[in-house]
């Protein structure tokens, strides 16, 4: 069996990054805990703890499991079939996609522990006894808000420990509007203390800035009515004042020089652009090799042959349903839009272009397309690739077993359309993953206007600006449905699909392979709280249905 996670650990050494701050995953801290105890009197070096916390978040975000899996694999955008013995993993991937998870899934337990641990470390930095600088306060407030928002979004309730209290005290639990207001207050503190970092500032965007804090504040406000409604019987609509604030926050981001950029897939290269608002130095290998076939490329010993997308998600994009090819110059030949990418007929000649390496006269990895890989795949020299059994390496729309029946088990090596956003041709392990991007901000502004926000712009014009720069015809009118679809096309694979589908009322609908008992089952709007945390903190109440 191909052990994907051993390979991942060898490549990224995530364990080293995570262990530094994972000792505090239980919210009921023991006396022997080295991070916080009754004797906690502040940190010796707040700045180094901030650095470590950014490193921890980088490791957490770079993973293909846990936070990423909850955000993407639980939607129509990704699924991982079992191919022989590969990717079985006791059904962990299938259960996420089918909405049949239980209360003890590792991909659910781990993010709860990780991001609550992040929150505690950030609170320690913010403790006055740690003597934090204004920059420390800005960074810690931003990372605490990001961590608490992650927990709220996934679990609906956020435990919070006051570092001034003894470790034996039980953390309070924030839900709904109280949780939102706490997060928003942190973001206001972050905005006040973080630096102005403009578009195209390179590595400076790997840390928090006023723009990234404003982006997250807009995201929280856009979802505020969702968070208020999830654990109550109320039916709160979006506030027009909140939606206007979203508009104003995005306008402030624009004032820092952030803007739409042409050349869609170039945005995801490790180079300055006008769209990246917050990125992390997380290696992109996970986003590349978890989807590619073992024989797709010689880089890193080949792919891991797992992550794929549903045909119905692929069909949201313009173009031939059964072909997604490029010519030798990289031009689409199947009517596909730019964001759907395509499969090239071979590799590009090596010319010493920036970030490329030579592989027999070709740019290494340049035979791997961008976007969605469907049909026959080709080697650097243009020869048709084969799978390990010698059959054509031609990815299919369908997921079928050995009898040809639709299935998520007993698949062969080529079922499923593959998804590539970060090209291996420009460095298969470069440390550059985008979390917040300007196109998302502009689409958030359009949505806020549709939900009652005031602006001199129109939602239709804002969405059509995105469509025009991506080379597709503008909409004649705008509905919530086609706005949700536009967000899917623009932001696929960037961890927003679950969040969007819940807000647009699509998360509980049927999609291929979803369990029949999961359709329209509101239980699955939130993940279950880990049992050890329920035992440790009586203020936590298990989410409905679990």
Q: What structural class do the secondary elements suggest?
A: mainly alpha
Strand order of the largest sheet: 4-7-10
Terminal CA distance reads: 33 Å
Q: How would you state the average pLDDT, rounded?
A: 92
Number of helices: 18
Major beta-sheet overview = 3 strands, antiparallel
Low-confidence stretches: 1-37
Helical residues, percent:
25-40%
Gyration radius, in Å: 23 Å
Order of helices and strands: HHHHHHHEEHHHHEHHEEEEEEEEHHHHH
**Net shape:** globular
What's the total number of strands?
11
Strand content: 5-15%
Structure description:
The chain is mostly helical and 546 residues long. The protein is built from 18 helices and eleven strands. The protein has helices at residues 4-12, 14-19, 46-62, 67-72, 92-98, 106-126, 134-155, 176-193, 210-222, 224-229, 240-255, 285-289, 311-314, 438-450, 459-469, 480-491, 497-503, 531-536, and strands at residues 157-160, 172-175, 276-283, 341-342, 358-359, 362-363, 370-373, 375-376, 394-395, 418-420, 431-437. A three-stranded antiparallel sheet has the order 4-7-10, with no helix packed on it. Strand 5 and strand 6 (362-363) form a beta hairpin. The longest helix has 22 residues, at 134-155. The radius of gyration is 23 Å and the shape is globular. The two termini are 33 Å apart.
Task: Give short descriptive properties of this protein.
546 residues, three-stranded antiparallel beta sheet, two-stranded antiparallel sheet, disordered N terminus
Briefly say what this structure is.
The protein is mainly alpha-helical and 546 residues long. It contains 18 helices and eleven strands. The strands form five sheets. Strands 4-7-10 form a three-stranded antiparallel β-sheet, with no helix packed on it.
């Amino acid at each position: 069996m191909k052990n994907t996670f051993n390979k991942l650990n060898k490549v990224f050494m995530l364990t080293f990054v995570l262990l530094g701050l994972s000792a505090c995953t239980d919210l009921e801290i023991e006396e022997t805990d080295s991070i916080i105890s009754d004797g906690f009197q502040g940190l010796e070096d707040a700045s180094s703890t901030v650095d470590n916390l950014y490193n921890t978040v980088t490791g957490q975000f770079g993973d293909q499991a846990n936070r990423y899996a909850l955000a993407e694999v639980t939607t129509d955008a990704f699924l991982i079939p079992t191919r022989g013995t590969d990717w079985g993993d006791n059904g962990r991937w299938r259960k996420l996609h089918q909405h049949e998870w239980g209360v003890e899934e590792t991909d659910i337990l781990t993010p709860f522990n990780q991001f609550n641990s992040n929150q505690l470390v950030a609170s320690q930095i913010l403790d006055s006894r740690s003597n934090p600088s204004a920059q420390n306060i800005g960074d810690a407030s931003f990372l605490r808000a990001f961590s608490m928002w992650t927990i709220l979004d996934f679990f609906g309730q956020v435990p919070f420990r006051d570092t001034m209290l003894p470790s034996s005290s039980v953390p309070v639990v924030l839900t709904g509007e109280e949780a939102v207001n706490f997060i928003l207050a942190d973001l206001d503190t972050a905005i006040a203390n973080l630096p102005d970092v403009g578009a195209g500032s390179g590595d400076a965007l790997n840390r928090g800035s006023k723009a990234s804090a404003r982006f997250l504040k807009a995201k929280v406000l856009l979802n505020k009515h969702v968070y208020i409604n999830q654990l109550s019987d109320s039916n709160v609509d979006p506030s027009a004042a909140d939606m206007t604030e979203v508009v104003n926050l995005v306008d402030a981001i624009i004032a820092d020089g952030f803007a739409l950029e042409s050349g869609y897939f170039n945005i995801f290269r490790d180079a300055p652009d006008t769209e990246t608002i917050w990125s992390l130095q997380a290696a992109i290998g996970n986003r590349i090799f978890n989807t590619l076939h073992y024989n797709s490329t010689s880089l890193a010993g080949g792919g891991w042959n797992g992550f794929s997308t549903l045909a119905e998600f692929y069909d949201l994009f313009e173009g031939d349903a059964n072909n997604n090819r490029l010519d030798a110059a990289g031009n689409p030949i199947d009517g596909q839009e730019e964001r759907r990418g395509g499969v090239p007929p071979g590799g590009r000649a090596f010319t010493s272009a920036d970030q490329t390496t030579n592989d027999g006269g070709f740019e290494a990895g340049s035979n791997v397309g961008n976007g969605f890989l469907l049909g026959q795949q080709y080697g650097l020299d243009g020869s048709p690739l084969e799978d390990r059994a010698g059959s054509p390496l031609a990815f299919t729309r369908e997921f079928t077993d050995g009898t040809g029946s639709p299935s998520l088990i007993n698949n062969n090596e080529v079922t499923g359309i593959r998804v590539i956003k970060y090209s291996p041709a420009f460095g298969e392990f470069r440390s550059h993953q985008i979390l917040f991007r300007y196109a998302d901000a502009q689409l958030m502004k359009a949505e806020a206007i549709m939900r009652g926000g005031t602006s001199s712009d129109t939602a239709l014009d804002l969405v059509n600006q995105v469509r025009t720069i991506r080379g597709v015809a503008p909409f004649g009118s705008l509905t919530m449905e086609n706005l949700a679809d536009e967000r899917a096309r623009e932001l696929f694979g960037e961890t927003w699909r679950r969040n969007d589908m819940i807000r647009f009322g699509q998360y509980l609908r049927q999609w291929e392979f979803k369990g029949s008992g999961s359709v329209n089952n509101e239980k699955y709007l939130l993940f279950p709280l880990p049992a050890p945390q329920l035992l440790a903190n009586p203020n936590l109440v298990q989410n409905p249905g679990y």
